[in-house]
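step 4 of 6: structure.
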Amino acid sequence: MNDTRSISASTLLLLLKLRAVLVLVALIIVFALLSPSFLTANNLSILAKHVSITAILAVGMTFVILSGGIDLSVGSIAGLAGMVAGGMLTVGIHGHLSGAFVSICAALAVSLLVGVLNGLLVTQFGVAPFIATLGTLYIARGAALLLSQGRTFPDLAGTPEGGSTGFTALGQSFFLHVPLPVWLMLVITAATVLIAARTPFGRHVYAIGGNERAARLAGIRIDRVKVWTYCFSAVCAGLVGLIIASQLESAHPATGESFELNAIAAVVLGGTSLMGGRGSVGGSLIGACVIGVLADGLVMVGVSEFWQMVIKGVVIVLAVTVDQFQARIQSRLTAAPLSRGDTPRVLA
Amino acid sequence: MTFLRMTACVALVAICGCHARDTRPLIAIIVPAEDNPYFKAEADAAAARAAQLGYRTRVDVHGDDAYRQDNLVDAAIASDAKALILDNAGTDASISAVRRASRAGIAVFLMDRQINARGIAKAQIVSDNDQGARLVAGEFDRAMHATYPGKSSYAELIGRESDTNAQVRTTGFHAVLDKDPALTLAAAQSANWSQSEAFSKTETILQAHSDIRGIIAGNDTMALGAVAAVKSAGLHGIVIVGFDGSPDAIAAIKSGEMDATSLQPAVLISRMAVDEADVFLRRGFTGKPEIQIIPCDLVTRLNAGQFINFEKRQ
Amino acid sequence: MSDAVQHCVVLEARGVSKRYDSTLALDRVDFQVRAGAVNVLIGENGAGKSTLMRLLAGVELPNTGDIWMSGRRLDMRSPRDAAAAGIAIVHQELAVMDNLDIAENIFAGRELVRSSALVDRRAEESRGAAALLALGKPIPMRTLAGTLSLGNRQVIEIARALAGNARVLILDEPTSALSATEATALFHVIASLKARGVGIVYISHRLNELLLLGDYFTVLRDGRVVGDGTRDNVDRTWIVERMSGRRIDANQTRAANTSSGNEIPLLEVRGANVKTESVSGSDDLNLAVRKGEIVGIYGLLGAGRTEFLEGLAGARREMPGEVRVDGARIALHSVSDALKAGIALVPEDRQRDGLVPDLSIRENISLASLSGFSRAGFVRRRDESARVHELAEQLHIAARDLELPVTSLSGGNQQKALLARCLMRDPKILLLDEPTRGVDVGAKAEIYRVLRSLAASGLAILFTTSEIEEAQLLADRILVMTQGAFTAEFSAANATDEVLFAAASPRTTVESAA
């Protein structure tokens, strides 16, 4: 009797764990029924490209959130990175234009710098992550506006004479019929999954998020790990900014406004706890897919902007509510079998 | 000792600074944003004209936030500005701020956007959004027929839907386009004035409706996002029009990526506002009606060379 | 007072049981609180005292059993209900708000209000002052609580209980942070409360205090009541025997450590101190532990034991004094410094400082040694699992599956998992802070056996304990720490209950209060 109950409970738990995937599948089915062109190869390719923006941000931020922090600055970093690259490609430093590769590297380096700043503020100066990254959100946005005095850097396609072509490849080119941003998303996600599951760094991130005091007493260099998580998040954000600038062939300083909210929503939809310690990178990718499919599908079906917002909000709130439900069932399942009176098998 | 000397130096510098202070009358200029070419051109033109006429100027940005606008108006009152040139943060939300400034003896000149009250501001000089929208919609209609004889469908990108101008423009578009039985609206989406949002939404719309032959956008930024999306989809010959007449859009019209835009004479309007403020400060009246509506200019490939930075070359 | 019968029962727990996930914290406990008397509750750590207290104070609900007050069954669902019934509690960690003044503290949460819904300061001040006067502490009402001494803050909490017309007052380790004079003052307060007919529940580890103050005694062990007595038939031996249960002959279970005294000690500490805000302590803590030796530091709560061990483990940023491992001086700025030198600590508070609840048993055990299993930056799962299994087997960790969350283990097995984490670093010196806190009797014996075999294999082990029996059972040598200083040293054979108690009790002026 007890057995059947625990079996049904564990089935329920499995379904809850897979909820993001289930929601995703359900959304795809609904939109495929409502819009005949939804499941075409072309549309899926474009959908994946749109998802890659949120996904790269979300995957990048997953480590920060797993370690118990938050990164509000990613949207601004994306804007700043685009402006750095745009400025170097079109205006140049002292009139000397840079090539695409150099500009990209410089933009990523600037993003990394903001990440280091976030990390140091949190670890060395003890600023709460929410406040520290809120500060850098404004700093990076202001810096992006200052770079061009608020103007857009247009014509990032460059000219062959100037040696500045090639930047548009980042966002617009294809490899094996799949857009490059999608490959970037897949590579980054795969690498991050591997880091999370298989490296000491990944394990340390989970440990810090789960119990920071215990992690410190176990000899983990908490400060170092945290700084790296913010750096990783910032570089991913910078990459997103570059992809957008490359797709639009222009860099606008307001690019990326409120992207951080989409990224956090994706991470949370993917089942990662904002308290840290629990969650997964793969979940963040699925979460980003849910948000992307929802946004594109609603546009295809022709739902108005106002309703899109309401629906997105409902999905997020539902997901987090279900998350609490899952945690409760899980604790009941794992705690019950070892109560006093049971005789656990001694490993031998 | 050193400390005392340093303090003395600082005090001296401060006193000299006070003496050298600019005594010209102050004109405060408040615009929605400086990261937008339209508002930037507007603010720059106003500041330049005011300086030319012998005024001290200060440019502030309210970011479409009525509360921040309130604070900026208070700051203008506190610094004893003589006139306020304002591109306001909302037709209703701005009334109290304008009234407060007027009561404090500041002459308020509204440009670009009206408020829902008369007799408080000395002048409200705005471009004719409705006329501009009809103008560019007519050109859109003409271009669609010229390129695609017979029936064809189009998509519309709307600005932030809570924004008055977004509503006026879309109404103007439809006043023209809905009369043409050959044109069908396949999709209408808000892209919140944003280029990257217009890009991804256009990409999606083009997937859902492969028969789309034209895109009409509520501003140039969104139109340029649509241009990038059309390019990325490998499509040619899609008619794209925008609104505002930004330099980027005019460049796109010259290169054939966009077909037309409706240029708001921002520079002209802000110069008019400053000129009328100057007249008012010297004589006590402007000699013009409060509401002045300035028509927009249609920019197409044929006349694109005549326009530069929200201004028609003389 | 000599006639115990005249005290009537005001509050009573009848057959209450409380189960947390995997442990039965209280097992059908009966407990009576008599009015106008000091009702002493005694037991070792983990015996269930604090659980019983939480039930009486309405913080938690019992699984079975009821709580009765003056012949009426109480239905308490929150501490508010308990307060309304007249039950007040002063926790060991004082709940005084430093930023508020005395009157505000006394009436926090149940402010006196006039008809206008404004706080009635005047009424609060006069009633608060009356309560403090009754306690013999006429401190001005407008004094900020943050400026008061610890003893006076405690008085404020008691005054809060009095102003709420409490009929039962629970005091949890009230003297643990007090100086001798403050403790004496507290005893006077308790005497005056008794005279007013308040039933006092008094919880403490300090036997001489209990014997001095107590009228009724209840001993808890492993969640059961194992002794009930009145002042007339209770003495020190009675308490100690019931607290520790059956006496085990210490010498029988311990292999005598016979290593000679002239080899270099594996761990040597000179001139250290454990000064904190509440502990003044000596500047000259010296200690040496030889290879294969188990040294116990016995002391009461707040004696500075935890600070001393954390210092040795590099967890306090700086360890004052000189620390030598195998004769070589080491710097201790971080936990990794300590681990590199071969010092590993099993912390006192498993939940707070040890376990990562979201990780599996395996991941918790290997947490401190991941780089050892890594090749080219990746953890080799097979090596890791093999080593974890090996240790789990060696330490007899009872788990269905090492991939389950660590929270699924019982207290004793969680402790073993932390021990395994330390052992995985192959330490030379093992530090354990209260190694069997919250561990049941069977697992205790098991942990002792494991530690002894580790010592036999050449580790130096240093542990702290507040349980006399544990010190006697496990240690080859016992140091007594009192108020931040080592006050005595005994070999296991000489360490009787009496001498350990005497050495550990702070020089309280208990006698002067009598």
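step 5 of 6: annotate
 - Chain C touches chain A through 50 residues (CB under 8 Å).
 - DSSP finds 19 helices and 22 strands in chain C.
step 6 of 6: archive
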